[in-house]
Amino acid sequence: MAIRPLHKPRIIKKRLGKFIRHQSDRYRKIKINWRKPKGIDNRVRRRFKGQYKMPNIGYGSAKKTKHMLPNGFRKVLVRNVRELEILMMQNRRYCAEIAHGVSARKRKLIVERAQQLSIRLTNGNARMRTEENE
To answer: How far is residue 91's CA from residue 6's CA, in Å, rounded to a whole number?
Structure first.
């Protein structure tokens, strides 16, 4: 059975849409990624009615749910078995994610140790091939 979080508060996002760059819909050369407008006459910077919204501190997440995954855990990057054992006492609050550069052999050891310590892994079956599949 999967490990469940200690508390799972409802995560409320203040804005679900992305902030898009001014005039990125008009010109192909201007990418959609947000950049703050800096022109002296810019309508978006001056916050005119009907223009794109600019990101500001008010759109931030609540402190209780900041960096929280939808399953109620917070993620910690793990590169070896020793780093996994740090989460032993906090296994209902944090889940581990195996780093990208970890080899399949070390990955297998981390997954086995995580099961013993009952620590949840976000990518536990990544790069895990069984002998039947080969």
So the answer is: 9
Q: Within its chain, how far is the Cα of 130 from the centroid?
A: 28
* Sequence-ordered list of residues with C-beta below 8 angstroms from that of 130, at least 6 positions apart, any chain: none
H/E run at residue 64: none
Quote the CA–CA distance of 70 and 77 in Å, as a whole number. 17
- What's the rounded Cα separation, in Å, for the pair 37 and 23? 10
Per residue in 33-74, pLDDT (tens digit) is: 999 999 999 999 999 999 999 999 999 999 999 999 999 999
Pair of tokens at residue 103: 């080899």
Other C-beta atoms closer than 10 Å to the C-beta of 28 total 7
The three-state secondary structure class of 87 is: helix
Tokens of 92: 């209902």
- Alpha helix stretches (DSSP H) within the chain: 81-84, 104-116
Torsion angles phi and psi, residue 100, rounded to 5? -65, -35
How many other C-beta atoms lie within 10 A of the C-beta of residue 24?
A: 16
**8 A C-beta contact, residue 36 and residue 54:** yes
Are 95 and 120 in contact by the 8 Å Cβ rule? The answer is yes
Instruction: State the residue for tokens 């209780």.
Output: 64
